[in-house]
Design a protein that fits this description.
Layout: E1 3-7, H1 21-30, E2 35-38, H2 45-52, E3 62-63, E4 66-73, E5 76-83, H3 87-98, H4 101-118, H5 136-145, H6 151-156, H7 162-171, H8 188-197, E6 201-204, H9 213-225, E7 230-234, H10 240-252, E8 256-259
Parallel strand pairs: 1-2, 2-3, 6-7, 7-8
Antiparallel strand pairs: 4-5, 5-6
Helix pairs in contact: 4-5
């Protein structure tokens, strides 16, 4: 059975604006997926839509409720994937906790620009930011990268992609443009307690996203401490070594194993369906009763 439990639509700021939920469902149907979860950042709007309307004309497989929750713990930002919760109750909680997409991205943009100014980096101050559709990190990255005066800064910290910039600014406290996201995102306990109370379960999304071993250890220990149920083991960015490490960790601590494509309609994440799997797919969702 081919699953994908990490898919985003244009309800997420970092996704391709052309991929609305109808197009995403059709893409999943064309790929013959059997079970999916739409996991937009900090909102479960689609899960509510799926309860209110019949979507089977677009996708014939099983859809479970999903959401990707940004969290910040001890100054490190990472993501928790929440599944199989009660959608209406959770949507209300998400607005209370995260605000609107525009609220979140505008706050992050303002914090990043404060850091940019402190470093005396050049920035296009005439550029207009639309928090309803724009990803704050992308906006700041692109509007600093275009100035040659900033080249030395990007070279010094080996920043070659938006992902490099995002990881450094959210996880590495020594990075000059690091922003403590506790001003924007909740801690792990708050998310886990709510999702469990709403009948769902929680896994750490893309645990090996941070290549900093110390940060990975902190994320995993935090997950265990606060009752996170599992890990997203299978992910396009995870190497075979990462997968083996995470599988062993899950077995050792009796945690759930999940996987997903991280589809968001961009060139980097353009395919649905789990990849990088060299073991039986029956391990996916091991122990979960749906």
């Amino acid at each position: 059975m081919k699953n994908d439990l990490h898919i985003r639509t244009n309800f997420s700021a970092s996704s391709n604006r052309d991929f609305n939920w109808e197009k995403v469902l059709q893409k999943c149907e064309d790929a013959r997926l059997k079970r999916i979860a739409i996991t937009d950042f900090d909102t479960c709007i689609f899960s509510v839509i799926n309860k209110l309307f019949d979507t089977s004309n677009l996708f014939s497989g099983q859809i479970i409720s999903g959401m990707e929750c940004d969290v910040c713990e001890s100054g490190i930002t990472f993501e928790l994937l929440a599944y199989n919760f009660e959608p209406f109750k959770t949507l209300e909680w998400s607005y209370q906790t995260y605000g609107t997409l525009e609220d979140r991205q505008t706050k992050i943009k303002d914090l990043l620009l404060e850091a940019v100014e402190k470093q005396d980096l050049k920035f296009n101050k005439k550029s207009v930011f639309n928090g309803k559709i724009e990803f704050a990190h992308k906006y700041v990255y692109e509007n600093t990268l275009k100035f040659k005066e900033n080249d030395a800064f990007f070279k010094k910290f080996n920043i070659k992609t938006l992902t490099d910039f995002y990881n450094l600014s959210t996880k590495e406290k020594s990075f000059p443009l690091y922003v403590n996201m506790t001003k924007v995102f909740p801690n792990v306990r708050r998310v886990v307690d709510f999702i469990h109370g709403a009948g769902g379960f929680v896994v750490v999304g893309q645990p090996c996203k941070s290549k900093n071993k110390e940060n990975l250890e902190k994320i995993l220990s935090t997950a265990l401490k606060h009752g996170v149920d599992g890990l997203e083991v299978y992910h396009p960015s995870h190497s075979k070594e990462d997968i083996k490490f995470l599988l062993d960790f899950c077995k050792q601590h009796n945690m759930i194993v999940t996987g997903g494509s991280n589809f968001n309609g961009t060139e980097q994440n353009s395919s649905v369906g789990i990849i990088n799997i060299d073991k039986a797919e029956k391990e996916i969702l091991n122990g979960i009763k749906l």
